[in-house]
Design a protein that fits this description.
14 strands, 8-stranded mixed β-sheet, single chain, about 375 residues, 13 helices, 4-stranded parallel β-sheet
């Protein structure tokens, strides 16, 4: 299924507007030999020698790529005293490759990449390999890419947590035989399949048992929230009796919630998410989203930075786990981290971890809800 779907995407034949039930910085400069620089600009912004190069995918699919990840990665590299440059491809696959080429030309000894798709990710890995530079797949596995390491969370477990908590939310609302839709991530991101494998393992059993009714099931190209909003609008027109939405991340969850608000259905239709973004957490505080999944990006960034620094220093690092690439069949050394489901009951966990700013989360609009949730006094 993955190969055939990806082939359709590559050929431009996947129509995401139809409901066919198809099976998420600042300016840079030469900051010295012991610091990291962060930039959202193009390859021309990469200056000076590069020890470790990091390429993030975009700033649209999830807020994390412009906030949490670059900040935590930069702090980790600075603490290690290793020069690094962190750049963002802004959703442009050709720019992604240009950035990698420039970083390698500037002397990068290790690359850390969160790919936009398999093709551009693989091209970067091959370019690096031709120069003897190891590559770490960060958060997203590059299918058939053969990266040296993969650092991410247990992404199937993310999906299991989403579906398990959605079941609890629907039960708490005493909704019998609910109709549940799936708003999946990008079909060019292997993580979207892993999340779906996880939540489908729970949902399909409920569908088969007749406990839930299967609603529309659609992928959203590029994790595009605007497209997700349009797709969900069509879903709701086709299934006005929807009771639950398994949205793959907070951005898509919010896209669905915006549509539900227009119809006066927010809080009535149960919606999931992922990434524990400020927006997602505020939707939980408002009662419009029932769960998000907290993947502590600081842990992920620190793990990737530690691995990259060791590789930069010429050390071989064994990984406790391996993940099979479904395209190549190769087993990639995998640094696997554990996700956590977040509901209104434990929402303060995310604040206590320092993942979100309490003043931003608990602004005037959400201050009372934050008090009720025990986040502030």
């Amino acid at each position: 299924m993955r190969k055939s779907l990806l082939a359709l995407v590559a050929a431009g034949l996947l129509t995401t507007a139809t409901l066919t039930g198809c099976d998420d910085g600042g300016d840079t400069g030469d900051t010295g030999s012991d610091s990291a620089a962060t930039s959202n600009g193009g390859s021309e912004t990469i200056t000076g020698d590069v020890g470790i190069g990091v390429i993030l995918p975009d700033t649209k699919s999830s807020a994390r790529w412009s906030t949490s990840d670059p900040a935590f990665l930069q702090a980790a590299f600075e603490k290690a005293g290793v020069k690094a440059q962190i750049v963002n491809a802004e959703g442009d696959k050709e720019e992604f490759k240009r950035l990698a080429d420039t970083l390698l030309d500037k002397g990068a000894k290790v690359l850390v990449i969160a790919n936009l798709d398999a093709a551009s990710g693989k091209a970067v890995i091959q370019d690096a390999r031709s120069r003897g530079v190891p590559v770490i797949d960060y958060d997203r596995l590059t299918l058939n890419g053969g990266a040296d390491y993969y650092v991410s969370f247990d992404n199937e477990k993310v999906g299991v947590l989403q579906a398990t908590e959605l079941k609890k939310c629907l039960a708490a609302k005493k909704i019998a035989n609910p109709v549940v839709a799936s708003l999946n991530g990008s079909p060019t991101d292997n993580n979207a399949f892993l999340f779906k494998d996880g939540y489908d393992s729970v949902l399909n059993q409920l569908f088969n048992d007749g406990e839930f009714q299967k609603g529309p099931d659609q992928y959203v190209a590029e994790w595009d929230n605007d497209e997700g909003r349009e797709i969900f609008s069509l879903m709701l027109k086709q299934y006005p009796n929807l009771d639950g939405v398994l949205a793959a991340n907070d951005g898509l969850g919010n896209a669905a919630i915006e549509v539900l608000r227009e119809k006066g259905l927010n809080g009535k239709v149960q919606v999931t998410g992922q990434d524990a973004t400020t927006e997602g957490l505020q939707n939980i505080l408002a009662g419009d989203q029932c769960v998000t999944v907290f993947k502590d990006v600081k842990l992920e960034a620190n793990a990737a930075a530690e691995l990259a620094v060791n590789l930069f220093q010429g050390k071989k690092v064994p990984a406790a786990a391996k993940l099979k690439d479904p395209e190549s069949g190769l087993y990639i050394p995998f640094v696997k981290l554990e996700p956590q489901a977040i509901t209104i009951k434990n929402i303060k966990t995310v604040v206590e971890a320092g993942f979100v700013d309490v003043n931003t989360l608990c602004n005037a609009k959400f201050k009372r809800a934050c008090r009720n949730a025990g986040i502030i006094k």
